[in-house]
Amino acid sequence: MTLPYDEIHVEDLEVFARHGVFPEENRLGQKFVISLVLYVDTRPAGTADRLEQSVHYGEVSAFLTDYMHQNTFQLIETAAEHMAEEVLLHYPLVKGLTLELKKPWAPVGLPLKTVSVKITRFWHTAYIALGSNLGDKKAYLDEAVKALDEVRGCSVEKVSGYLNTKPYGGVEQDDFLNACLKLKTFLPPHELLDRLHDIEQAAHRERLIHWGPRTLDLDILLYDDLVMDSDDLIIPHVEMHLRDFVLLPLKEIAPNKRHPLLHKTVAQLAAEVCGGT
């Protein structure tokens, strides 16, 4: 698949730093070599000839050099992961990157040129459903939005209005307050799910009755156009296209987003379920 972005390359940036499993590596240091591909839209800078509309590769190179100097990791996998995250967090024009971290002086006792780790990380768009029907429902939703926006690697971009709805699933309980939000994140789906569970637990969520009352319920509805089915996570959410309390707030913030399996927009799905509401 062709990536929909242009590329800025930084190749073989040499840095002397103190990373490694052995104490002498942390004490004496050694050479590391960084190669980087930044996935960006160079069109604005290319047409205007203005540096501020692009990503300054010199600044990024200096940023990574300083980061390697100021931190110490045992594994180059860890160093690569942290550097990739820091670039995504500090340079908003970067949509994603491929980073290769080479260790040419790796102490393995064998004749080799280098060892390296190469990773690719991108920002993704997820849509999250929120619900509450116990206690101060609005406060629980407000706090969930705030907490999710404070998670490292997450940024809440849009939040729907709050919708009062009747309970789903036939369990006698109070009405729900529901909403949806659009989330920018570099967390993979299962890590995002773990963070949602953390936020639910902070709101004293108890999973006692299926479709029963809860202080806070957070569900991943969509994650880019990903289709996945695992024991604890199904994307797209298996019943999102049947639930008016999901489709109505989702339509408010993403009416033209298409369901990756049904190939219908959220607005179309909402019209089918809600009769054109």
From TrEMBL:
Molecular function via GO = 2-amino-4-hydroxy-6-hydroxymethyldihydropteridine diphosphokinase activity; ATP binding; dihydroneopterin aldolase activity; kinase activity
Question: Can the keyword Lyase be found in this entry's annotation?
Answer: yes
Query: What PROSITE patterns does UniProt report for this protein, alphabetically?
Result: HPPK (PS00794)
Q: Which reaction does it catalyse?
A: 7,8-dihydroneopterin = 6-hydroxymethyl-7,8-dihydropterin + glycolaldehyde; 6-hydroxymethyl-7,8-dihydropterin + ATP = (7,8-dihydropterin-6-yl)methyl diphosphate + AMP + H(+)
Entries under Gene3D superfamilies matching the protein? 3.30.1130.10, 7,8-Dihydro-6-hydroxymethylpterin-pyrophosphokinase HPPK
Domain 7,8-dihydro-6-hydroxymethylpterin-pyrophosphokinase intervals: 210-221
Q: Which InterPro entries match?
A: Dihydroneopterin_aldolase (IPR006156), FolB_dom (IPR006157), GTP-CH-I_C/QueF (IPR043133), Hppk (IPR000550), Hppk_sf (IPR035907)
The pathway that the record names for this protein is: Cofactor biosynthesis; tetrahydrofolate biosynthesis; 2-amino-4-hydroxy-6-hydroxymethyl-7,8-dihydropteridine diphosphate from 7,8-dihydroneopterin triphosphate: step 4/4; Cofactor biosynthesis; tetrahydrofolate biosynthesis; 2-amino-4-hydroxy-6-hydroxymethyl-7,8-dihydropteridine diphosphate from 7,8-dihydroneopterin triphosphate: step 3/4
Keywords (A to Z) from UniProt: ATP-binding, Folate biosynthesis, Kinase, Lyase, Nucleotide-binding, Transferase
Q: Sorted alphabetically, which Pfam families does this protein's record hold?
A: FolB, HPPK
Q: What is its EC number?
A: 4.1.2.25, 2.7.6.3
GO terms classed as biological process: folic acid biosynthetic process; tetrahydrofolate biosynthetic process
Question: What protein family is recorded?
Answer: Belongs to the DHNA family.
Q: What is the documented function of this protein?
A: Catalyzes the conversion of 7,8-dihydroneopterin to 6-hydroxymethyl-7,8-dihydropterin.
Q: What is this protein called?
A: Bifunctional folate synthesis protein
From which source organism is this entry? Answer: Flintibacter faecis
